[in-house]
Predict the structure of DoxX family protein.
Amino acid sequence: MHNTASLLLLVFLSITFIQSGYDKIFYWKENVSWLKEHFAKTQLKNQVPLALAHVLVLELVSGILCIAGSIELYLTNGKLYGYYGALFSCITLLMLLFGQRLAKDYDGARTIVIYFVPAVIAVYWLN
């Protein structure tokens, strides 16, 4: 297999976003409550449930595309689904980064960058 590193990155992104989506679905009230407090001093203070729903959809789309991309890459060496999974992962992470910066949570923003770097590498390798 010539695409081992790309496959590992797609699995990494799949785990990241599917687990995060699972957490949002099954602990919705707790997430909304925590995020309302987190964004209390921002323009998003009244939009938390809607913003969380948008992020949830993007995370699930990213994770599902990365899973499909992993399978496609492993079975046929195809890169289409993986590329779009990595691209959606980057878009999702940029939205999360924007929220953290808006909330002035610079440590949280820094943590997102740790996930963003491998996502960008995956986009590059799968393009």
Notes: The radius of gyration is 15 Å. The helical segments are 4-26, 28-38, 48-76, 80-102, 106-126. The chain has five helices and no strands. The mean pLDDT is 97.
